[in-house]
């Protein structure tokens, strides 16, 4: 078992322009980007930059995308992992993976470690239990506390359920910044649709504002899916451009997919 070799590290090219809307969130994250780019400026001033940031809110709203944009904007290494990857049957394996991940991130610094579904390892611990999960969480806490001020590693955790997390994770010096990423409103849906169609040839019949109105309750993941399905319909119809009809069909297909999955729109 050599988890060190498979920790997914990349240098994303994502920028804040790829993330539609969420202006206030981006503003808050800009501070972190600036720190990763010029840490000395902050150190000279004696300022402490957060080690951990938590994104919380419903799925498909751009949490992973934002974390990757923080890495892209700051030219940092991006370690993208999921909490459940650390949940193992044998005691000590998850903890070892956490240790290896942080070692690698320090080596490749500046780094962003993004832990999606952090509740899989960070859920509230039970008194007197010392199971595999607790050891993994303890190791995460140890790594976060052990950062020296020069490590230039920032951890971004994401969860749909902030209330499930162990309080130890939320203490100052750990994940002490919490940023809510909510479902997109009409304006944001319109912006998301623009981002996902700006590389596509659109016919004049396409009215993205109307589409944004019709997609109340859709998250960014569904909207990007609609734009992609519309392009596929256009190709299939041998059309040079994507028309409003293609978008209508794409919308129908995505809604049908949702209904068959029995998903509830948020
Ligand atoms: P989960 O909780 O399911 O991991 P998430 O919040 O991390 O979801 P992402 O994986 O970042 O969501 O989003 C899925 C896709 O939806 C993105 O790759 C992107 O294509 C699109 N998307 C979501 N939000 C936005 C946004 N604000 N701007 C542009 N695209 C978006």
Could you characterize what this model shows?
The chain contains twelve helices and six strands. It is an alpha/beta fold and about 270 residues long. α2 packs parallel to α4 and α11 (about 220-235) crosses α12 (about 245-260). The model is unreliable at about 1-5 (pLDDT under 50). Bound molecules: adenosine-5'-triphosphate.
Any descriptors?
binds adenosine-5'-triphosphate, 266 residues, alpha/beta, 12% strand, single chain, 12 helices, six-stranded mixed sheet
Low-confidence spans: pLDDT under 50, at least 5 residues?
1-5
- Alpha-carbon distance between the two ends: 40 Å
What's the count of strands? Answer: 6
Query: What number is the mean pLDDT?
Result: 89
What percentage of the residues does DSSP assign to strands (E)?
5-15%
Report the principal-axis shape: globular
Going by helix content, strand content and strand pairing, the class is alpha/beta
Order of helices and strands: HEHHEHEHEHHEHEHHHH
* Number of continuous helical runs: 12
What characterizes the major β-sheet? 6 strands, mixed
Task: Name every ligand kind in the structure.
Answer: adenosine-5'-triphosphate
- Amount of helix: 40-55%
Radius of gyration: 21 Å
Keywords: ATP-binding, Cell cycle, Cell division, Cell membrane, Hydrolase, Membrane, Metal-binding, Metalloprotease, Nucleotide-binding, Protease, Transmembrane, Transmembrane helix, Zinc
GO molecular function: ATP binding; ATP hydrolysis activity; ATP-dependent peptidase activity; metalloendopeptidase activity; zinc ion binding
Protein name: ATP-dependent zinc metalloprotease FtsH
Family: Belongs to the AAA ATPase family. In the C-terminal section; belongs to the peptidase M41 family.
């Amino acid at each position: 078992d050599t988890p060190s070799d498979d920790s997914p590290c990349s240098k994303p090219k994502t920028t804040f322009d790829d993330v539609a809307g969420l202006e206030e969130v981006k503003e808050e994250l800009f501070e972190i980007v600036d720190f990763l780019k010029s840490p000395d400026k902050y150190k000279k001033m004696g300022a402490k930059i957060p080690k951990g940031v938590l994104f919380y809110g419903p799925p498909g709203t751009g949490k992973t995308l934002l974390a990757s944009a923080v890495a892209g904007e700051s030219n940092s290494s991006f370690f993208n992992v999921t909490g459940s990857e650390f949940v193992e049957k044998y005691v000590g394996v998850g903890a070892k993976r956490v240790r290896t991940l942080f070692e690698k991130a320090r080596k490749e610094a500046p780094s962003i470690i993004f832990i999606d579904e952090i509740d899989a390892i960070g859920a509230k611990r039970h008194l007197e239990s010392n199971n595999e999960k607790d050891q993994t969480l303890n190791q995460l806490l140890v790594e976060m506390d052990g950062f020296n001020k020069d490590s230039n590693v920032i951890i971004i955790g994401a969860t749909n359920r902030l209330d499930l997390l162990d309080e130890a994770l939320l203490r100052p010096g750990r994940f002490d910044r919490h940023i809510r990423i909510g479902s997109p409103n009409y304006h944001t849906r319109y912006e998301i649709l623009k981002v996902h169609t700006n590389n596509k040839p659109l016919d004049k019949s396409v009215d993205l504002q109307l589409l944004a109105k019709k997609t109340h309750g859709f998250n960014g993941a569904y909207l990007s899916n609609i734009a992609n399905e519309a392009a596929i319909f256009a190709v299939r119809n041998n059309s040079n451009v994507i028309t409003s009809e293609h978008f209508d069909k794409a919308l129908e297909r995505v809604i049908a997919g949702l209904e068959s999955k029995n998903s509830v729109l948020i």
